[in-house]
Write a structure and sequence with these properties.
The structure holds two protein chains of two kinds. By secondary structure, chain A is of the alpha+beta class. Chain A has a single domain (12-148), classed as Hotdog Thioesterase (Thiol Ester Dehydrase, Chain A), CATH 3.10.129.10. Chain A contains three helices and five strands. In chain A, strand 3 and strand 4 (120-132) form a beta hairpin. The longest helix of chain A has 16 residues, at 65-80. Chain A is elongated, with a radius of gyration of 18 Å. Chain A starts with 23 loop residues before the first strand and ends in an 18-residue tail after the last strand. Chain B is of the alpha+beta class. Chain B has a domain at 16-33 and 95-172: Hotdog Thioesterase (Thiol Ester Dehydrase, Chain A, Roll), CATH 3.10.129.10. Chain B has helices at residues 16-21, 38-48, 53-56, 58-65, 95-98, and strands at residues 30-31, 105-115, 126-134, 138-139, 144-155, 161-172. In chain B, strands 1, 2, 3, 4, 5 and 6 form a six-stranded antiparallel β-sheet that branches. In chain B, a hairpin with a 4-residue loop joins strand 4 and strand 5 (144-155). The two termini of chain B are 23 Å apart. The chains are: A alpha+beta, B alpha+beta. At the A-B interface, helix 1, helix 3 and strand 2 of A face helix 2, helix 3 and strand 2 of B.
Chain lengths: 166, 178
């Protein structure tokens, strides 16, 4: 076990509909915005050049889609645990997250269900997620479908499956 | 703006009709320049402040995921063209930037990604992109432009489809928001 690393896993059977995720706040300094192209190789100038961003009608540089999605996924994994498989994530980007903003993430369980395919089972959870800035402006909202391990799952019950039809 | 690229992220310009004529176009498979690697996985996890053991503990990752796993949000990263190569030339832009439209800039509007298999350290992904739709002209707070919908299919080196992504991007002209 490595200190600080998240090993805490929630079993599918312990998830309750309407349960709120703990949520998180994340301060987006200029340094964090610039980390984003370094981490994602996305060198679109709107993510690192304030002069370019202003010429595009933006007040300054803003984080990219991958960063917003990474923040949403972190909300899900912190709540579900490191054996959680992200099945689907639908995100609408409503307003940019600029350098100097704080992302405020929240989520809630909408539904749980058991899926079966070719003799294999997995527990699936539907979540709604939102990302607001410090002023309460909705920056992103979406739905995440995640698969959590079943209590006492057999080895064949890994939470990922091949694509339908393949 | 066309011609020599100032930023490597310039977009093709043209008319709405030229863009509509491109709907249904599929790109040839393009293989990523970057092999999925632990250093970049951890750099992204550090960006997202994500402490999940699959990124930070190789023993845990090997046991549960079959290797250190890539954060799902990084999917597009593994297909990002390198800024410079010894061969020369400019990076191949994403399909969305190659659609000829009046707008000189873009911002992402929505993303829907479905994942089928984990992506692990050592994988090299390829992508095929398809232009699904170009909307009529719309006015938003940012400006006047068109919504461009693309679908990307991501495969691992063994041809297994690991993810499918539908992305909607707003191509618009700066300075005429309202």
């Amino acid at each position: 076990m490595i200190p600080g690393v998240n090993y805490d896993q929630r079993a599918f059977e312990d998830v309750r509909v309407d349960e709120a995720l703990p949520g998180a706040r994340d301060e987006i300094t200029y340094r964090r915005v610039i980390m984003n192209p370094a981490a994602t190789l996305d060198f679109y100038p709107g993510h690192h050049d304030p002069e370019f961003a202003r010429a595009q009608g933006q007040p300054t540089i803003f984080v990219n889609t991958m960063h917003v999605m990474g923040f949403i996924d972190r909300l899900v994994f912190e709540w579900g645990g490191p054996r959680t498989f992200l099945v689907r994530r639908k995100v609408s980007l409503a307003y940019p997250v600029y350098a100097g903003d704080t992302m405020v993430g929240a989520g809630r369980v909408l539904d749980t269900r058991l899926e079966e395919r070719q003799g294999r089972r997995r527990g699936v959870v539907d979540l709604e997620v939102t990302v607001d800035n410090q002023d309460g402006v909705r920056c992103a909202s979406g739905h995440v479908t995640a698969s959590l391990p079943l209590g006492g799952a057999a080895d064949g019950d890994r939470p990922w499956w091949p694509r339908k039809g393949s | 703006m066309t011609g020599p690229s100032r930023t490597g992220y310039d977009v093709a310009t043209g008319t709405f009709d030229e863009a509509r004529a491109m709907v249904g176009h599929r790109t040839d498979p393009r293989t990523g320049s970057v092999v999925v690697n632990e250093a970049m996985v951890q750099q992204f996890a550090a960006l997202a402040h994500d402490a999940s053991a699959g990124y930070w503990d190789p023993e845990f990752a090997a046991e549960w995921w079959g290797g250190t796993v890539a954060p799902p949000a990084m999917l597009m990263t593994w297909l990002m063209p390198l800024e410079w190569t010894p061969r020369g030339g400019l990076p191949t832009p994403l399909l969305t930037a190659r659609v000829p439209l009046p707008g000189d800039t873009f911002i992402n509007a929505s993303n829907d990604t479905e994942y089928f298999e984990p992506v692990r350290v050592g994988d090299r992904l390829s992508v095929e992109e398809e232009l699904i739709d170009v909307s009529e002209q719309k006015r938003t707070a940012l400006g006047v432009g068109h919504f461009v919908t693309t679908k990307s299919t991501y495969r691992r080196q063994d041809e297994t489809v690991v993810a499918e992504m539908t992305n909607v991007l707003f191509r618009f002209s700066t300075g005429d928001g309202g």
